[in-house]
Amino acid sequence: MANIVKYPFFEFAPRYVSATGENLIQGYQKVGKWAVALYGVLTILTMLTIQSAVTIVTASLVGYIFGLDFSLFQISIGLLAISTAIVSIGRYDLIDTVIKFIILALTISTIIAVGTVFEFEKISFADFDFSNTVHIAFLIAFIGWMPAPIDISVWHSLWSSAKQKESGKKISLHEALRDFNIGYFGTLFIAIGFLSLGAFVMYGSDEVFSPKGTVFAEQLVNLYTSSIGDWAYPVIAVASITTMFSTTLMCLDAYSRIFKPTFKVLFPNVKKLEILNYLWLAFVVFGSLVIIGYFTKSMGFLVDIATTISFVTAPILAFINYKVITHKSVPQEFQPPFWLLIHAKIGLVLLTIFSLAFIYWRFF
Q: What is the pTM assigned to this prediction?
């Protein structure tokens, strides 16, 4: 349901890039500078928390699985250093190649793990109670974050634009949508796989999970291997590490790419954006390390703030994406078909309802 509701707003990103050769931030400028400013503020409010959160989870897994005798902070420095080196090269094709290998390993390991634990008779919908506010709140949050917050559609447009510029050829609409659909529904497939693993292995295990990263990583991996078998340890290890490292790398790359077009729109007279871009990347890295080093105990609170901000702004960003793709600057042959526009309008209404329901549940 979540993927169906959000599909149009993510699909508009590659469609817009194919039509204009521009990224969504440039498209937001045509809606109004307020749209670019809103996206910039949203990014600033959430990026350090999100980057630090995914990095420390990755560090926890790496530390346990490889048996490293280093603190989470030290491992985080290493992970961010590797990610920064890849991002600083600035070539989309390098990052794209790295991510493709990671996704391939992730997909294979996930299929093996799910195929091992899957039991048809365990599938049941009886445990979800639509009269339970906690269950409803989880469903709302799940829809809000599956497959990702709407603002990540901008990331996709930046990567698509970079790919087009580096290849030196215009990506056709057919090719752009084909690649997008493979990635979008591939993400859905992998997500269902991990959700199934959680349902079959974690749910009902009576395991009390620790809030400490390394302990949680150990509990998680041991729980899977005890349920599936010791032979599955490498499979689970590869799946978990590739998932989190790819997330760490993609977040850092996206945050570094967002700065230049956003700053260029809001402050067109400022020069030497390349230097400022490297300073921005350094700010993201060191800011994340500060949070990891000094605010780990408040991580849950910070993540709560970040998720709330992203969730409640989802309908606004969805509306902006709709305005961008239907703008007069987009050639008619590239504009969405009638059915997709209707789909988007229905999705926009549902996202608004979900957002308002979340606000009511969260604050009242």
A: 0.84
The set of residues, in sequence order, having a beta carbon less than 8 Å from that of 148 and lying 6+ positions away, is none
- pLDDT of 364 over the 70 cut: yes
Q: Are 42 and 313 in contact (CB under 8 A)?
A: yes
Q: HSE on the CB side for 102, CA within 13 Å? A: 17
Distance, CA of 163 to CA of 170 (rounded, Å): 9
Q: Rounded to a whole number, what is the largest CA-CA distance in the chain?
A: 64
Q: Is residue 185 within a helix (H) or strand (E), and if so which, with residue range?
A: helix 173-197
The encoded tokens of residue 157 equal: 């447009």
- 3-class secondary structure, 326: coil
Are 61 and 233 within 8 A, CB to CB? no
The single-letter DSSP state of residue 298 is G
Contacts of 192 (CB under 8 A, 6+ apart): none
> Residue 8's closest CA among 362, 360, 350?
350
In whole angstroms, give the CA distance from residue 316 to residue 71: 40
Q: Which amino acid is at 211?
A: P
Say which residue the tokens 């961010």 belong to: 80
Question: Is residue 197 classed as helix, strand or coil in its secondary structure?
Answer: helix
Report the SS3 class of residue 165: helix
From CA 187, how far away is CA 10, in angstroms rounded?
Answer: 13
- Mean predicted confidence (pLDDT) in 47-66: 89
Domains and CATH numbers, the chain: 2-363 (1.20.1740)
How far apart, in whole angstroms, are the C-alpha atoms of residue 203 and residue 126? 14
pLDDT of residue 240: 80
Identify the burial level of 254 via C-beta atoms within 10 angstroms of its C-beta, where 0-12 means exposed, 13-18 middle and 19 or more buried. buried
Q: CB-based burial of residue 7 (10 Å sphere; 0-12 exposed, 13-18 middle, 19+ buried)?
A: buried
Task: Calculate helix-pair angle for 2-20, 173-197, nearest 10 degrees.
Answer: 150
Residue 308, pLDDT score: 75
- Neighbour tally for 299: CB within 10 Å: 18
Contact residues for 170 (Cβ-Cβ < 8 A; gap 6+): 18, 21, 164
308 phi, psi to nearest 5 deg: -65, -45
What pLDDT, in 10s, does the model give residues 324-340?
999 999 999 999 999 99
